[in-house]
């Protein structure tokens, strides 16, 4: 038995025109048809038809890089140099990190992502088994990986155990519908070339994604050059890590040759514009990356350095910054950033059946409520999504045919319980930190 | 009889520490006291005490530059060069502008501004009497001015009538508590130096603000130099227009000497970071303006080129962009942008009794709801306001001691009626435009 949903607008993908009064047919986890009322209703008699009314149905968004458990640190330290922020606040408290904090911090972030229309995300942090547990309960989909670095990890301990844990996850989740595992070396300044090489081998063995922070700051490049006499991209290339499975995050400081190289080798990039600005890293050469033909996703980065998990806001910021620095409002368009936040993001994370509302794709969709005062009038549904919508304007979220949020009510998470738990965790953190 | 309100946090101004469990005493339109429960309650027995609970009370925000009626054009044309946007879409439809559209467009914007915690704003547009009518009904405060330019206006007709209308408004609203009138020459490329000179004289006669778009784009500077052989600031200086009553909007293309001059002559600047990015104008030298000692306000600019009226978002963007382009997260701090959006903004618009929650100031305040999922945890109320709060997270707004919004319900505007009217206006606009 199929489900049919309709609304004032359906945005099937950024390559199709917005469909006015469209009807979308869903069979279990997949979209099987899309058309007008006259085309659809006679073909599927006796089906459940849900008319969402004055809304826009669009592909569920993709947050292609974050550290979800860090929501418990949101606002703990602000307007500081990155190294002071890390060394005086984040590292001391992460040294005492508890599995329970990771679980509830993830839940808090899942609430915010669901309310922002995010269906799929990519995470790198510590105690990722707790992240996985929360994601499985929530109904969202994720590519996750335990952060690997040479110094002992607050979660798994010595490096060797990090590889064992990652391989254990790779095996356990090899055919999981909801969870995929990435091999996640942290950076080229926290992992030696030998460690990164082992990560690359492991990702090749399982045909898994290699998820790494790359060329985020000028300090990173200087540090890596000082140690090895080469820029990070050159090292990664020599190790064989630049290929279609690479998810290189940030890439603020890529030069022209490096952009060309990444394009030629089909590597993927995740752009986190707000985090790059807020931490003072700079502005990534997004226009140049797109012109070179690189598939770029959008990420919020961790909520402690953003300070939210709102992909609408990242789409808007990504577009606005490029227009501003190029002094050209045509240089990047709403459809470009929406593509980054939907099917490019999904493909980059290995969920290539998601990100479009077309027959054959997964029924991963979000619903924007056009009755909102700041979404008036509705000349242009695409512009409303990219330039006016915000965290909290999404009324419904469906993933693989199942409602995760319905009429603003999250069905898979008890919001009040999460907020109460996070209040307790805040007190524990403060008592340990000060 | 006084009113006492309290909440988990009160932010009296950016120069005081956030006050935990503070109590604010309001007598009619003014704040008369602020202190702890023990200090306040015995001093004012038998008073009404409202405990707002888990919230932050902060000074009502100031949107120091916008064109509120343009909400009816939101999204009508996107990602276009400024001149195409203006000449093919905005000017043709403005030529047919109706007073009724201005009134309802203003109402729509007022809803959004109230929900964003804005108490005071500054407007320049056409048919400003309709803007004034809507503002008076809403309870907000505004500095408004009819846009003056050499070519015939769709509202008042020939230039001469613009001066008459402005003078009539200046007289009628000279002692109005809620409405102030600015003399508003549009720009130095739409007004001749003679017209600007007359505007300056008129503003001097009434000790009124002079509100002008200045150095927004490189094209503006080129055009003005072509016509007069000088840069806009030089012309304005020679005309005697650079002084403490000047509100110069945008100033994206100010050079070092011009920044020094504006500082020396106590001129005020309004920074509209998102509009400047979105229209491809560039990034204003905010850090340099602040270092030079200029008082700078924050504006959204019109909702058709932003596409919202959210000052939280402008604070965040203003801070993030400076950190990003300077590659220094300490270059501008949360308190700097909050000051711009509160008491500096208020002072720039001539409402210098607003913008702080201290005894002697007007009771203009907004309330941020900390129960929101994306405002967890609350280590730092200032960071939550600037980096995490958004349009829609404000539960209450009070202006001069009167509640304008209470527990998310706007008391002075019928939201549904406005949205219905704007839907009709959209149809009228489309029928005239295409």
UniProtKB/TrEMBL annotation, chains A, B:
Q: Which GO terms describe its molecular function?
A: 5'-methylthioadenosine deaminase activity; metal ion binding; S-adenosylhomocysteine deaminase activity
Has UniProt tagged this entry with the keyword RNA-binding?
no
Keyword Metal-binding present in the record's keywords: the answer is yes
PANTHER family from the UniProt entry? AMIDOHYDROLASE-RELATED DOMAIN-CONTAINING PROTEIN, AMINOHYDROLASE SSNA-RELATED
Question: Which reaction(s) does its UniProt entry say it catalyses?
Answer: S-methyl-5'-thioadenosine + H2O + H(+) = S-methyl-5'-thioinosine + NH4(+); S-adenosyl-L-homocysteine + H2O + H(+) = S-inosyl-L-homocysteine + NH4(+)
**How is its cofactor bound, per UniProt?**
Binds 1 zinc ion per subunit.
Q: Which gene encodes it?
A: mtaD
What SUPFAM superfamilies does the database record attribute to this sequence?
Composite domain of metallo-dependent hydrolases, Metallo-dependent hydrolases
The UniProt keywords, alphabetically, are:
Hydrolase, Metal-binding, Zinc
Q: What is this protein called?
A: 5-methylthioadenosine/S-adenosylhomocysteine deaminase
Q: Give binding positions for substrate.
A: 94, 186, 216, 301
A Pfam family: Amidohydro_1
Membership in a protein family: Belongs to the metallo-dependent hydrolases superfamily. MTA/SAH deaminase family.
Function, as annotated, reads: Catalyzes the deamination of 5-methylthioadenosine and S-adenosyl-L-homocysteine into 5-methylthioinosine and S-inosyl-L-homocysteine, respectively. Is also able to deaminate adenosine.
